[in-house]
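subagent[fold] <- orchestrator: predict structure for attached chain, return tokens only, no commentary.
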Amino acid sequence: MAVAIKRVYEPAVRVDGTRVLVDRLWPRGLTKEQAAVQFWLRDLAPSTELRQWYHANPEAWAQFRKRYLKELAAPQATAAVEKLYDLAEGKKNLTLLYASRNEERNNATVLKELLDGGRKPPSSVGRAAAASARIRKAKRN
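subagent[fold] -> orchestrator:
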């Protein structure tokens, strides 16, 4: 699976594959048709408080990343992370869409790192956590 990140304002192309919006707010000025979003995983986005804090402190990328990964360990976000892994597993190409003007440092880059198996996230986030959540879910059913 190839994971790409892209500003949602860029036109959709065929090689994007499955397009997933990972922002909490719908991008200003775009219709659903223009955005060509197949999935909108709001719970993957940083909280409003964290987003506003990072906007005011863009030099604190490492701290933002650490706080964001901690938020992804919350129960509602864990379900969204699991959904993202499920989408990534079955697809040839997956494009994570974001609205931020900062193309190098945004929540989509952190999510791409998780999907690519990059920097180690907290133990309650990532592929291992998603797999254990599936096992727990299967045991309940």
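orchestrator: received. Logging for downstream: The mean pLDDT is 86. The helical segments are 32-35, 48-56, 61-72, 75-89, 107-116, 127-140.
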